Amino acid sequence: MSSQTSKLVLGLTCVATGGIITYVHVKQQSDREKMHEGVIRDTERQQRRKIENLYLLQQQNELTKQLKKELKTS
């Protein structure tokens, strides 16, 4: 009887170990994907900020030109 019990315990231990290893592997893959998505979002955010800053700089340059024209005509 103890031989069957030890085989059962060994089998359950192997199944549990396999499950843990599978869970850790799947979790690592999921974490890597999430981290990669974060990098992509950061890059997109930086591009949007760069475009916004360029737009603001152009507006400021236009306002500066208008102000200089107004000052010359005054």
TrEMBL record:
Pfam families: PET117 (PF15786). GO terms for biological process: mitochondrial respiratory chain complex IV assembly. InterPro entries: Pet117. GO terms for cellular component: mitochondrion. The keyword Oxidoreductase does not apply. It comes from the Eukaryota. It is found in: Mitochondrion. PANTHER family: PROTEIN PET117 HOMOLOG, MITOCHONDRIAL (PTHR28163:SF1). This is Uncharacterized protein. It comes from Papilio xuthus. The lineage of its organism: Eukaryota, Metazoa, Ecdysozoa, Arthropoda, Hexapoda.
